[in-house]
Amino acid sequence: MTGTPVLSVEHLSTSFARRGGTRSVVHDVSFDVAAGGTLVILGESGSGKSVTVRSILGLYGRRASHTGSVRLNGAEILGTPTRGLLGRRMSLVPQDPAGALDPMRSVGSQIREVLRVHGMAASRREARRRTVELLRTVGIPDPENAVRRRPHELSGGMRQRVVIALAVACEPDVLIADEPTSALDVSVQAQILALFVDLRERLGTALVVVTHDVAVAADLGGHVAVMYAGRIVEHGPTRDALARPSHPYTAGLLACIPRPGTHRGQLPTLPGRPPVPAQEFAGCAFVPRCPSARSQCEEAVPPSVEVAPGHTAACPVAAGRVKEVIA
Ligand SMILES: Nc1ncnc2c1ncn2[C@@H]1O[C@H](COP(=O)(O)OP(=O)(O)O)[C@@H](O)[C@H]1O
Ligand SMILES: [Mg+2]
Fold it and tell me: Structure pTM?
């Protein structure tokens, strides 16, 4: 990666208070995202993806405690009030876009308000012009007419585009999208992903996209961080990590992708369920489902080893393979 990363996360851990102790959900997560770069956070439901991005955005306030570091353009933001940054420097397309829009107001007035609050438009007229332009940017047909619509008058795909328009209104340095397409049908999904890539190319927006879908990761490219039970188990260039998965969990996820010619009933599925993060594992949390687990895996969390340039995996089996190649 060249230059200073726009977003740098180091050893981030998040836990929540609960009766009789704390529940630790995210453990020792580290990654960098370059300006105009892409990071995909990939993992099954419950692996801690949303808690990771919401922690980065500072959305839990006092409800969570964090350790580690989150730097935006070099400045520490973890544990500091991020209100002023949200929207302007970093913004979120949330997992549930329904809650992001006010059902009572036209989409145009909601976007104009964001532009005004962040000083992105000098006059009402300028705000109106930029709002129409934003709706056009996110691919909403007839934007002059769409600004007058209330959210329920638009289709699900169009509402999602309005939420994205809100998130990009202030041209943030980092756009974080949490499962932005999982509620949409496949053709709309592809359009939304193309839109993100377009924003990245035209505005230099760095993308952090959370997904459980390997195909979405493959489409976006960039780098991928594969999460399991609150930890990154594999991390590297997306093409490399998906073509040559080094952690048995990543390999398992890839084996579950439906391929043309297979019937649903024949699909391999990853046996067992993701662990509850509160479960304390001394070692690798994937052991109960891992086809290659060794006794050492239960004793301590395996260190991340570089399996290819910039590609790491936290697994002694992958590490062993690297040693064989070198020897
Ligand atoms: N506010 C919270 N308080 C306590 N536990 C939480 C909270 N939010 C999420 N969790 C737990 O953290 C784990 C990871 O959740 P999440 O990050 O939402 O997973 P993902 O987005 O990967 O599906 C889950 O077991 C979930 O129940
Ligand atoms: Mg989630």
Answer: 0.92
